[in-house]
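Example 3.
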Amino acid sequence: MTRTNRQWLLASRPDGEVKVENFAWREQAVPEPRDGEFLLRTIYLSLDPTNRAWMNAADTYLPAIPLGEVMRGIGIGIVEESRHPGFSAGDLVQGLPGWQTYALSDGTGYSKLPPAPVPLEAHFALLGHIGLTAHYGLLEIGEPKQGETLVVSAAAGAVGSLVGQIGKLKGCRVVGIAGGEKKCAWIRDDLRFDAAIDYRNENVFESLRKHCPQGIDIYFDNVGGPILDAVLPLINNHARIPLCGMISQYNSTRPSPGPSNLAMLIIRRARMQGFIILDHLANAAPAVRDLVTWYAEGKLRYRTEMVEGIENAPEALLKLFSGQNTGKLLVKVSGEP
Amino acid sequence: MTRTNRQWLLASRPDGEVKVENFAWREQAVPEPRDGEFLLRTIYLSLDPTNRAWMNAADTYLPAIPLGEVMRGIGIGIVEESRHPGFSAGDLVQGLPGWQTYALSDGTGYSKLPPAPVPLEAHFALLGHIGLTAHYGLLEIGEPKQGETLVVSAAAGAVGSLVGQIGKLKGCRVVGIAGGEKKCAWIRDDLRFDAAIDYRNENVFESLRKHCPQGIDIYFDNVGGPILDAVLPLINNHARIPLCGMISQYNSTRPSPGPSNLAMLIIRRARMQGFIILDHLANAAPAVRDLVTWYAEGKLRYRTEMVEGIENAPEALLKLFSGQNTGKLLVKVSGEP
């Protein structure tokens, strides 16, 4: 009995907004692992803004995806067969299986899930690249101190919602920027941010001025664009700006102008720093410990939005850019063991 | 016999380019120091891009200059009378006397010139805020390593020319960007930069690509604007961008768009960091020692352009923005002791 590997290929590069038509469906036989390889069954795929950036012709921090290849995607899976000395059948692993139900790997970029008393989906909503991005970006680059003011954009998103909660744990005044009253209510009322700004219905600069009476010490930037420009005039001396993402730019067909207030970085002796969490996965154990501990103590919460079936992955990705999803967006590809 | 204090006041704020008409001339009696004050005779005034930024209505890292007050300016002078316990007649000091031939001070912001075997003008062309800016910005923020590629803009300017030479001392490949063949020839042939790019007659991006075959590890930014945008696509992983100035923006009447390539900071895990040298003057002794040593060894050179007479200060300031001056621009206000 031949099993089927169901795949989404990158068929064309988006011109502006990503469309379902940029992907092509393919079914083929599940391959057999050779020496040094294992076969993984995908359980969950993580949908992230970075998926969009990968679809462009230009290399990013990873090479561009060649047209006609399986769409790149972060996933959790279970090893079904292994001829790799480091992995055994039954291992739960995370890495880049891509948008397919089965993946072969020589182990590059894969790691076993750390043992943690959390649901499997939490390895993407709380731990994994999401939680580590929030933890590293805020604590190592943002360097929050008790009493400082932290502003985070895409604050109801997977990373942003953790950043704000960790900021509260560190004693910061936390102001979140999100799109729509529902998201704002969640971060303000459920996650206990000090204030929420609805960028769709408020003047972000004026609202920031109101909610950050002591100025802004840290701006955790997930979006770039005009919101960064609204933040810059309000930063304090020695402010830190971890640059995590620029979702506002990813669908642009032409270069969009950057912040006109960049000279504020000089006036305020401020630092803006980009990072890619892949660089820091090897030293992630202490961060995982923090996140698991805070979660167990009820101090850190997450939400997931689960999309059923790999066939729905392209449509689900679109949600990220229209701001429709609430919580960490995941695709359930197959059942948990 | 009443001596005359000759002053330039800030009469109006520039709308775009600074004009001589923004200043007003006043003559009044030289004041007498009261208890806790000293009277200084200005010897040299330093003209810097920051003078322009100070003229705006908005505060920068220093408060805006009120209209009708003496124009703010960095200067070297000699104490003529002192009723201040920390300063004595005959002391050579640097600080902010402003554009006037005599200044009263309670000592705030003044320091005695460090003893150094250099000409008096070198306290502005090699040491002082200029040399310390180059030293701190490149070494503390830029963190140059042997074999790395350093790009510096306004490379024939007072700060930029020192930055490039210090970069060479640290083993970097140094590429300078300057306006006009004369300036380019100076930094390439006399200061021994590895390459010079004439931004007025070359495509900066293409020339950078040619002269930085290993990419750019450090960009010491004195200008902001389009040159920053041309640099960003070429930065290497973990690049550092000390933000020293944005002279391209200072005469803008409206916000000018920032770099559209800012997402490169994420992709390349790069850091962009502003600084103000005033924060670091208290710990400057080791840097002064370095600069004096390198100068004595013939490894660090500077040029000055000396304007005679405080009456010519406004016109001289204009040169900075048209790129006419070669070397550190100074006004000789009175004779050296």
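The longest strand of chain A covers residues 38-46. The mean pLDDT of chain A is 94.
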